[in-house]
Amino acid sequence: MTTSTRQPNDGVAKVHIDLDYAREDYILLRDAFEGERAMKERASSYIIALDSQTNDANAFAAYVERGEYLLVVSQTVEALRGLAFRKQPVISAPDDSAIAEWLKRVDGDRQTVVDLARKLLTERLLMGRSALFLDFPTADEIDEDDDLSVAEAMEKGFAPLLSVVPTESIVNWVEKSGRLVYVAIHERVTGFDHLTMDEEVEEHIRVLKLDAQGVYIQQIWVAEGAERDTQLGGKHNRKFNGTSISGAAGYALKTEIVPTLNGEPLDYIPIYFATEGGYPDVAKSPMLDLARKARDYFRKSCEINHAEHLVMLPTPYAIGFSESELEELDEIGPGTRWSSTNESAKVGFLESDGTGIGVVHKSLDRIEKQLSSLGARILAPASDLAPESGIALSIRAASENASLTDAVQDVERVIKQVLRIVEQFYELAPGSVSFKMNRDFVSSRLGANEVKALHDMLIAGSISYETFIANLKAGEIVDQDVSADDERERIETDGAGLGAGFGE
Fold it and tell me: What own/partner pairs with CB < 8 Å and gap ≥ 24 does 117-120 have?
């Protein structure tokens, strides 16, 4: 490990032009996913203030507070993720091996490889791009101790570590001839001073690059004025902030290391992108159109609820009153009388019938339908949906799950890439560990009538017992890893007679 002099270099803080262009979309996606509180906290970016509210922060705050934000983005992402993990990924690794233990703590703490896959898929569905960073210890760190258990190696940071990197934290990247040669990741490391009881935050940029000889090196560039120490190559206290780089005076190189794999430096950057083709480029989020429509709904709801608020509160008026009489009209309600010496004076209430509000309501209804067509069917009550045949449901489900299929394929590919490298670290043959995610997003569970029909065919001798069990497995009645012989043995063990149709 080498530590250089603090050489300022503002170039590491440069933001890729594509990321800069997508910044507003990314902020919207994050807020839309977080929900109503986040949208209202950043309301000035999403809600157009009325003329009377331009210089009245309280009036604008009340206007925004009356608005309603629908949680369609988070619910859609969570629903799609739920479909993907309706069945757990199938993982195999050599029994009692170091890599089997590593799969239970891939981040060096408590995240399993399945936890990481779930997090990676969530990021991919929401942002359109997600990345997995594989970090290695340095050779001199490993030499400190030769005889460590897997758990001890993880505790000391002498094992590979996996991190999901938020999309907008990857602030810059460079490819040459299709090869990734430079990546800059903006991070904030949060610590806690137990003496002062203060939280300490260090902002830095982690640079991953290939040097002139094609060797992978890792650097930490610290924002000027930062004091907190940062550990490299071992167990990191990482917290990606997911925001743009702050206006620091500059960045200075603090630490540089050469990560190794089994004592040898790498000739590639071990960060993998869950995007189409695995490229680091910014990709359009499948949730972006949905987030924009949810924002439009939020805007319209502010307008409608503000208008209804005004309609609900009729305004009193007084005509023909003298100035002194008007000054006394400071109360209204039971027990209060307005009077004037002018016999022609009149009092009453200005009240709107709210006719114009109906037009805005229609606009809101139109946005709801657009949200529904974009995949947020949670907006449409079940009673309003026309019955669909099984074929129609399957066609619709196939269309709606196209984005999910792509995302699952991207995530699975990235995790497999990482596993091939970790196999080398633990000196295993390629393919020793397998990882396969679920592709069966739509439940095909057989109904009671279908099961009865299959059973009747079995009893009548129209199908074999093996075919009967195969259909029950396809219909999610019997576990996939249970064979016909296994099921027959279970039935016999339970003391249930199989009957004439069960192979007699």
Answer: 117/89, 117/411, 117/412, 117/415, 117/435, 117/437, 118/81, 118/85, 119/164, 120/164, 120/274, 120/411, 120/414, 120/415
What DSSP assignment string belongs to 381-444?
-GGGSPP--HHHHHHHHHHHTHHHHHHHHHHHHHHHHHHHHHHHHTT--TTSSEEE-----S--
| CA separation, residue 170 to residues 19, 215, 407, 421, 472 (Å) | 9, 21, 19, 22, 47
Higher-pLDDT residue of 328, 147: 328
- 8 near 224, Cβ under 8 Å? yes
CB proximity list for 17: less than 8 A, separation 6 or greater: none
- pLDDT tens-digit map of 392-448: 444 444 445 567 888 999 999 999 999 999 999 999 999 999 999 998 776 667 777
Length of the chain, in residues: 504
Q: What percent of the chain has pLDDT over 70?
A: 72
Nearest to 13 by CA among 222, 179, 290: 222
Taking residue 288's Cβ as centre, other Cβ atoms within 10 Å add up to 20
Spatial strand order of the sheet with 271-274 comes to 161-165, 130-135, 271-274
User: What mean pLDDT is predicted for residues 256-272?
Assistant: 91
Going 424 to 426 to 431 to 434, the CA torsion angle's sign is: negative
Residue 271 gets which letter from DSSP?
E
Q: Rounded to the nearest 10 degrees, what angle do helices 17-34 and 72-84 cross at?
A: 90
Instruction: List Cα–Cα distances, 355 to 350, 351, 365, in angstroms.
Output: 15, 12, 16
Phi, psi of 295 (to 5 degrees): -65, -40
CA distance 495 to 492: 5
- Structural Rg of the chain based on CA atoms: 31
Residue type, 20: D
* Secondary structure class of 478 (helix, strand, coil): coil
Half-sphere exposure of 419 (CA within 13 A, CB side): 24
Q: What pLDDT score does 497 carry?
A: 45
Residue type, 111: Q
The C-alpha atoms of residue 32 and residue 40 are separated, in whole angstroms, by 10
